[in-house]
Amino acid sequence: MKNLFLVPLVVLFSATTIYAQSDEITPQFGVKGGVNLSTVAGDDIGDQDLLTSFHLGLFMEIPISERFSFQPEVLYSGQGFTAVTRDESNFFNTDGNVDYKLSYIQVPLMAKFYLVKGLYAEAGPQFGFKVKEEIDFNSDSDGGDIEIDSDDSQIKDFDTSLALGAGYKFDNGFSLSARYTYGLTTIVKDDSAFLGNSDIKNAVWQFGVGFSF
C-alpha cells in the first residue's frame, strides 16, 4: 500500500530536479480540485448512470517554451458508476440502483499547448492506482457502503487512461479546466470469476478549479 502513494509522489517531484535549474524555466506548483462525473464503458456492460464524486490533488506546470508546458499531477479521484434498473434488470441483477465506487490515486502526465494567452488544450496518459473499492446497494440513502476486500475484488489495482482537456489560466494564478479520461485497458481482472473476460473501462468527466503558486 505504501508503494501506491510513493510512486506518484516520486513521478511528480522528481521532475523538479530535471527541469527546475534552467534560468528560462520556472516551474509552478499548484493545487486543484473539482467534480467528477464517472461511469464505465465497453461492449460487456449495459445501461449505466453517471456517478458524482470529486478529485483533489497537486500539480506542477513546467514551461518548455512560450506556448508549450509539461504538467505532471497527483490526484485523489473518486470514480465508478451507477447501475440502473431498466426492464427489471441491471449490471447486478437487482431491483434498484447500485453505486459501485472506485477510489484511485491518479497520475496524469499532461502536455499543455497554449492556443492564445491563458487558453490551453491538453492531452496525455494517466496512470491510476486503486486505493479503495465500495458497493452501495441502496444508493438513495446514506450509510449503505460496503467496502470490498482486495482478495474478493474483481477490479484490477492498476489502470491506464488517455486524458484530453482544455482550460483557461488567469494572470492571478487561478484556472478553470474540463477534462475527459477514457480507459485504454479493461479494469476487470483476467481471472475474475464474476465478470469473466468482460471489456469494461473507466470513463470520467472532470470539471475543476486550480491555483498556481
Automatic annotation (TrEMBL):
Residue span, Outer membrane protein beta-barrel domain: 20-187
Pfam families hit by this protein: OMP_b-brl_2
Record flagged with keyword Signal: yes
Domain of life from the UniProt record: Bacteria
Keyword Signal among UniProt keywords: yes
InterPro entries, per database record: Beta-barrel_OMP_2 (IPR025665), OMP/PagP_B-barrel (IPR011250)
The protein, known as: Outer membrane protein with beta-barrel domain
Protein's organism: Gelidibacter algens
